[in-house]
Amino acid sequence: MTTLTLPRADGSLERYALRPARPWPTRARAPVFNRIAYSAAHVVADPLAAIDPWITPALDWDATIRYRRHLISLGLGVAESMDTAQRGMGLDWPTSLELIERTLAATSDLPGARVASGAGTDHLDPTAARTLDDVIAAYEAQVAAIERAGGRIILMASRALARVARSPDDYLAVYGRILSQVREPVILHWLGDMFDPALAGYWGHADLDRATDTCLEAIRAHASKVDGIKVSLLDGAREIAMRRRLPAGVRMYTGDDFNFAELIAGDEQGHSDALLGIFDAIAPAASAALSALAAGDRAGFEAILAPTVPLSRKIFEAPTRFYKTGVVFMAWLNGHQSHFTMVGGQQGARSIVHLAEVFRLADAAGMIADPDRAAQRMRTLLAIHGIEG
Can you tell me the distance from the alpha carbon of 347 to that of 324, in angstroms, rounded to the nearest whole number? Predict the structure, then answer.
């Protein structure tokens, strides 16, 4: 039995024994899921780059692409260059575009590979944007670049638009211009301010009911250009209510990392598909659960995902915008990268007490692939924080 010493929230230490590893399939069991499921994929930083890590992004391209191929092998789509990849939070647009181009090229040989990529306005300094035309031009530039690369679009929420817009009509004007131009239907992306405080009041309202009305108005006006909308508000009831109001053929992609299991499972009135950051951290379980659901085994789906929900809620707890630290921590524990270093130095965004609880919950959910390796790596991190033994 593998053991190590972990800190508790009260400042004390405990001796913790890991469970045996749970075997997961290395490939998707179901040839086709009955839900579309994207994993918003993290990036692997290059820890040996001679840069100022808080200022300049540097990626380990081989490890970053290898992880995307791993996700696709499990039957998951890749939502590329989203906030999970630290987009706009360390990862700049030139690096994001290179990542999109590399991912599309490196996954083109994989049967059924599904990649959608974030188009936003983050190359435009939000404090420099003065007009809606500035925002529109920024969106147009990124959409065009992704379409030239042969990519599908996720139209990301815009900090610049949130700053410049003065009314809901301004949002409708911007989204109307962009949606009227895109080549293929896009996924809209509504990210709540718990993920990014700069997006507070998105769609022109602080009141979420009124914001939802405006968002739905934009979708209805251009329904043929909208594949679906990803909603990340961490409010399951609100997502269900909005899902029931979507035009026929427009999908709801849950971005609710608190309530994803029940939203994906759905009810007699419908279900959500998925575009989730937590799927990066629990990819083998997500794949196995979706395979069970595709086979008609809802109980099996629920049994697999149930223990991952407390893990996800811990990783995404407030301040939610720091969830990326937990995602990369999990990738390091499970051997998908050789280090716990992040773009922008964000490995330091969570406390060792938080990470210790993520470790416990990951173990309880069967998300530790190799207990000995995970324990050895955790001991290294603990020692850096003054905890040895």
Answer: 9
CA distance linking residue 152 with residue 118, whole number of Å: 9
Kindly report the average pLDDT of the chain as a whole number: 96
- pLDDT for residue 107 is more than 80: yes
pLDDT of residue 126: 65
- Would you list the DSSP string of 51-113? S-TTTS--B-HHHHHHHHHHHHHTT-EEEETSGGGTBTTTB-HHHHHHHHHHHHHHHTTSTT-
Cβ pair 375, 1 in contact under 8 A: no
* 32 — pLDDT class (breaks 50, 70, 90): confident
Regarding the domain delimited by 24-316, which CATH topology (the fold level of the hierarchy) does it fall under? TIM Barrel (3.20.20)
Q: Name the nearest CA neighbour of 162 among 194, 224, 118, 206.
A: 206
In one letter, which amino acid is 243? R
Give the count of beta carbons closer than 10 Å to the beta carbon of residue 211.
Answer: 20
User: In this structure, is the dihedral angle defined by the CA atoms of residues 123, 344, 197 and 216, taken in order, positive or negative?
Assistant: positive
Q: Which helix (H) or strand (E) holds 237?
A: helix 236-243
User: What amino acid is encoded at 219 in this protein?
Assistant: I
Dist. CA 121–CA 87, nearest whole Å: 11
Q: How far apart are CA 124 and CA 110, in angstroms?
A: 34
**What one-character-per-residue DSSP string does 126-189 give?**
TTT--SHHHHHHHHHHHHHHHHHTT-EEEE---HHHHHH--SHHHHHHHHHHHHTT-SS-EEEE
| CB of 51 closer than 8 Å to CB of 91 | no
What is 262-293 written as a DSSP string? HHHH-BTTB--EEEESHHHHTHHHHHHHHHHH
| H-state helical runs in 258-384 | 260-265, 278-281, 283-294, 298-305, 308-315, 323-333, 352-364, 371-384
Q: Which residue has the tokens 């410049």?
A: 164
The answer to whether the pTM exceeds 0.90 is yes
Cα torsion through 227, 253, 195, 86, rounded to 10: -70
Average pLDDT of span 171-177: 98
